[in-house]
C-alpha cells in the first residue's frame, strides 16, 4: 500500500550539508533561491539489499548537473557516495528510493545568484513499484503530452535540473486526469522523446529501437538496459523516431530508476503487447540490481 503521509512529517533522518538531521527539522528558508528560480538539481536512485545501484554514476551526474547550472558542489562524488550510504544506514533501510538534491541558498534574491551558497541534502524512504504492482503484467497506458521537451539551445537539457520537470508534472497531471498512468512526450521537432520521468524503448522484429537522447537525459537505467539487451545478442538501434512509426512497433517499455523496466500497453492511439523480450529485460534488470544470477 502506498504511504500517504506528507513528506515533511515523517520519522527518520535526512543528511543535510554534512550532518544527519531529524527528518522534520531538515528545512530551508522561504527566500531560498531554488524555490523562486529553480536553481536546483537532483538524483533519483534505488537501494536493493542494502546497496545503492550505480551510486557513483548518480553522484557524478549530480555534480555535473550542478556545474551545468553554474554552481559547484563542495562535496566530491566519493563524499556524496558516503553520505548516501550513511543516510540509508541511519534510516535502517535496505530496499529504498533515494533523493539527493542540491540547490542554491538564500544569501541573494533576484535572477543573479553569484553570492548564494550551495546546499546538499539526501533523503530515502520505502517506495514500491512506481506505476503499481499490476504494471508489469498488464502494461501502463500513456496519453500523448501537449507539452514537448525543449531544444538543447533553450534549456540545460543535459542536467537533471528541477526546472525541466515543470512540464513533466503538467503533462502527467493532464494524463492522469484523463485516466492514463503517464504521458509520452515528443521533442521540439515533433520526434518521440520520453515519458515524463523515464526513457522509451520500442521492439520490432526482435530489435530494440530507442530515441537519441539529444534533448533529454541519457538515463543511467537506460544505459544499463541497453547493455543487458546487447549481452543477450539483441540489436539496439539509437535513432530518431517519428510518431507515425509507433504503429509498426510490437512492444514498448520505459526505463528509469523509479520505473525500473515497465511495459507499455497503450500510448495515445497506438497499442502494444507486453511481449517476451520486454519481460525478459525486466527480469534481467531485476536480477542485476538484486544480484541474482543473470542468464
- Main beta sheet: strand number and arrangement? 9 strands, mixed
Bin the strand percentage: 25-35%
Give the topology string: H per helix, E per strand: EEHEEEHHEEHEHEEEEHEEEEH
Which whole number gives the mean pLDDT?
A: 96
SS class: alpha+beta
| CATH class wording of the largest domain | Alpha Beta
Rg over C-alpha atoms, rounded to the nearest angstrom: 19 Å
The proportion of residues forming helix, as a percent range, comes to 25-40%
Question: What is the end-to-end distance?
Answer: 32 Å
Q: For the record, what is the CATH homologous superfamily label of the largest domain? A: D-amino Acid Aminotransferase, subunit A, domain 2
Q: Report the total helices.
A: 7
Unreliable parts: none
What's the number of domains? Answer: 2
Could you say what the CATH topology of the largest domain is called?
D-amino Acid Aminotransferase, Chain A, domain 2
CATH architecture of the largest domain: Alpha-Beta Barrel
Amino acid at each position: 500500500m502506498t504511504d500517504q503521509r506528507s513528506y515533511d512529517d515523517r520519522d527518520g533522518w535526512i543528511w543535510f550539508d554534512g550532518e544527519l538531521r531529524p527528518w522534520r527539522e531538515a528545512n530551508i528558508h522561504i527566500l531560498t533561491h531554488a524555490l523562486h528560480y529553480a536553481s536546483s538539481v537532483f538524483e533519483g536512485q534505488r537501494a536493493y539489499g542494502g546497496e545503492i545501484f550505480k551510486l557513483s554514476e548518480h553522484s557524478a551526474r549530480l555534480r555535473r548537473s550542478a556545474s551545468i547550472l553554474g554552481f559547484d558542489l563542495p562535496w566530491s562524488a566519493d563524499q556524496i557516495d558516503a553520505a548516501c550510504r550513511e543516510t540509508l544506514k541511519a534510516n535502517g533501510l535496505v530496499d529504498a528510493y533515494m533523493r539527493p538534491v542540491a540547490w542554491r541558498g538564500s544569501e541573494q534574491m533576484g535572477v543573479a545568484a553569484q553570492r548564494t551558497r550551495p546546499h546538499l541534502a539526501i533523503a530515502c524512504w520505502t517506495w514500491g513499484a512506481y506505476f503499481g504492482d499490476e504494471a508489469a503484467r498488464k502494461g501502463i497506458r500513456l496519453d500523448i503530452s501537449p507539452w514537448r521537451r525543449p531544444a538543447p539551445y533553450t534549456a540545460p537539457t543535459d542536467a537533471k535540473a528541477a526546472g525541466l520537470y515543470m512540464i513533466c508534472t503538467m503533462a502527467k497531471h493532464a494524463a492522469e486526469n484523463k485516466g492514463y498512468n503517464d504521458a509520452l512526450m515528443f521533442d521540439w521537432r515533433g520526434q518521440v522523446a520520453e515519458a515524463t520521468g523515464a526513457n522509451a524503448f520500442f521492439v520490432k522484429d526482435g530489435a530494440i529501437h530507442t530515441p537519441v537522447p539529444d534533448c533529454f537525459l541519457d538515463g543511467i537505467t537506460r544505459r544499463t538496459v541497453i547493455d543487458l539487451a546487447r549481452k543477450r545478442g539483441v540489436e539496439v538501434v539509437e535513432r530518431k523516431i517519428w510518431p507515425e512509426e509507433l504503429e509498426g512497433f510490437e512492444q514498448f517499455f520505459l526505463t528509469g530508476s523509479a520505473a525500473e523496466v515497465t511495459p507499455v500497453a497503450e500510448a495515445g492511439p497506438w497499442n502494444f503487447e507486453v511481449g517476451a523480450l520486454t519481460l525478459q529485460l525486466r527480469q534481467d534488470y531485476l536480477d542485476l540490481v538484486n544480484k541474482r544470477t543473470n542468464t
